[in-house]
From TrEMBL:
It comes from Duganella rivi. Keywords: Signal. Residues 1-16 form the signal peptide. This is TonB family protein.
Amino acid sequence: MRWCLPLLFCCASAVAAAPDKQDQDALQNLRNHLARSFELAPELPLDDDLRARAGQLSAAHLERINALLPLWMEEERTLQSTGGKQAERWSVFFALWARLLNELALWQLEPGDAAYEQATLAALKGSPLQCKLHGDSHFTDYAARIARIQQLPAAQRPAMLATERELLAHWGQPRPAPAAWPEPLPQEAALALLSSRQQDRPPLPPTLAVQLLSEGKDYAAMAREDQCLLHLWWFKRNLQQGVAPAVALSAFRYGTMISAEMRFAGMFESGTTNGKPAPAPADGKLPYPPIASRFHAVGATVVQLKLNANGKPQQASVVGRTVTVPGIRGARPVAFETLFDAATLKYAMDGRLPTDPTFKVQLVWKLEDTQP
């Protein structure tokens, strides 16, 4: 299903179906897509009672959101229809898709009440098996939360599920803005510590030691399960270093949050060869990230360089992000805010920025041409 959604619309102009039928098909595909984020794989080791209760909770949530989707679609169509010009079906669909993904991301970042946060901290200190979620790693959003609850004593689970119900009820509602992005990102901070070879750090799980210390594997190339293990390791290290639990927990949530570039990895690429991105445009301009192009995301990133002893770029960090995505209003588009990070960092490390480390440079991202 992850790959067929774009196909539904790629040939829309050639399909003679009635508009309402196309809307129904689009909504059903979005419902199917959302349902996958709430699947609990049969192999996931959960007690029968917890699995049953979690299934009832997710079913009720999906029923509510499924009923809201047609209303969201009409709302988006109305907002996009200006000057008597009807909104394009493509733009309405992708705006709705963006909104749905962003609700997932906001939900993953939102803290619960004090008891919920304390229990979550305790669960994350438990077995690393909570990163092994079995299902498609693009759709383990709900499974990760239920796997954490499984780590807790049975007496605590009903209260945790009650808070999960409250947090799910916030979908589609105004909510407090999430905490700011960690700076640097937790994976960047963890990898910087590992590259420094400092000894005062907790031991890495064997699979991470092989990948990161022996093979020098890039974070983006790691499996989601291994990325989760790295964030779990960094979370525990933060606590050992006296970082405030709320700050450590927020960093973990950002690190493991579903993002557009994770969820849609490879879906909208064009002109690729053996899985590698197409070459940069001949005019020297930065290539626009395909996912950003598809969702008509625009914005700006602020980057800062760290130089080595020879005055060459050693490390670049994105220290500011402003992103706008059609369909997401009244909330930060957190699922899309890192869309331009990879291109920004490459641009900086290619030596195309001023070499004064005190400089912070803003790159503005905008679509010069409307793209489907």
